[in-house]
């Protein structure tokens, strides 16, 4: 066997490179661990094998330029070989230019070495090859696809202050594995906040903390599947990742048409599904809100049929022209699961979301959540609890609401001046808008934007598709679109995503690619 030797026939020296102790100058202290695989047995081949192993570690980048190697004495002791063998190997590699050696500085990986061989180019997706959808393998100049807030505005100082206070006062059990429902401190604070800001009716005992909306949806889908449900109704415009999560739990998705008044909830009576996923405050991606009579219809359906509504309130805090639309959950707490998240209000990297769950589902949900690594970090939960409780969360949301509204107004003004034929909808709330295009132009506009470094999504990207259908714009479906005349060609423009300093450039680039 070519590359395995250690101090005993049964064991290898296995000292991972990521355990190398670092000094302040970035180097490794003499005697630090270094993983090398050498052939079994001693003899004349050990020196050559050591040289080859060190050379390969440098060539592949596992030992980065500037890394300080163990002293010859330490490495010889670790490998169980003669010190002279290590010294000779170091000397050979210094002569070849792989290593450098200076008095008082030890032996280090040379700064100018052969770079690691590049990885083979990634094969582009079939859709990109076919020209159906741009493959954004390179970072675009402006990424205007929906899904993220302006992460450059994350309140770092306020969050750090909250983290310090939370860590100082954290109980000892916060450093354990955690509880399936989440930290009680966060659940208490969330109950107060959601009642005040979103009209949610919840006691802390009915709140479950999870690592993002998708995890919450996966948990609920498993609970419904275990209870014998086989179908879930979804809006005919939405995110395929959500549909696929539910399908992965064993549920079949069926589309519920969406028009300019939101989902057609009265049509739930013709379906056999007893679960429905809705975005009532700000339908994604069309941007319309569910009108009052349809809100009443879905609540009535759930009460009559024993149904369950999954309410995705992904950006409910950001409404600009009127009072925020209250949560649907407030109308029927025993038939609606409210799902909220910090991903849009703060940052997706926090991986913190919450569910307000009807009493009759709590035991089943917690039983599923306790079966694996579903918990969120306890210290992050305590930090968010402190952040909300101190008022910093409200201040941040108010500030971001003003910032996003200014951007929305800039977008409306720019389109009125430079592209007056483009109709803009869905602008009363949220972080994105829908820009209706002339018929037959959506695909070419998205492709043209990609060539100019502008990452945009067409509305067709979010139309409901059955699992076997390809993912790409251009397909015409039978479900009605968000406005008169069926499915318009349109762009979904995420004006909330770019940082402030880049928004003017992004807006200018957008106007240049519009027909």
Describe the structure.
This protein is α/β, with parallel strands linked by helices. It has 14 helices and 17 strands. Strand 1 and strand 2 (106-109) form a beta hairpin. Helix 7 packs parallel to helix 8 (240-248). Residues 1-30, 123-137 and 471-485 have low confidence and may be disordered.
Distance between the termini: 65 Å
Number of helices: 14
Number of strands: 17
Strand proportion, as a percent range, falls in 5-15%
- Work out the helicity level: 25-40%
What's the short version?
The chain is an alpha/beta fold.
Indicate the topology.
Layout: H1 45-59, H2 72-79, H3 83-96, E1 99-102, E2 106-109, H4 126-129, E3 142-143, H5 156-169, H6 184-198, E4 207-210, H7 213-226, E5 231-235, H8 240-248, E6 252-256, E7 258-259, E8 262-263, E9 275-278, H9 292-305, E10 308-312, E11 336-341, E12 353-356, H10 359-369, H11 378-389, H12 392-418, E13 423-425, E14 433-436, H13 442-451, E15 454-455, E16 457-458, E17 490-493, H14 500-513
Parallel strand pairs: 3-15, 5-6, 5-9, 9-10, 10-11
Antiparallel strand pairs: 1-2, 4-12, 7-8, 11-12, 13-14, 14-17, 16-17
Short descriptors:
515 residues, alpha/beta, 7-stranded mixed beta sheet, 4-stranded antiparallel beta sheet, 14 helices, 35% helix, disordered N terminus
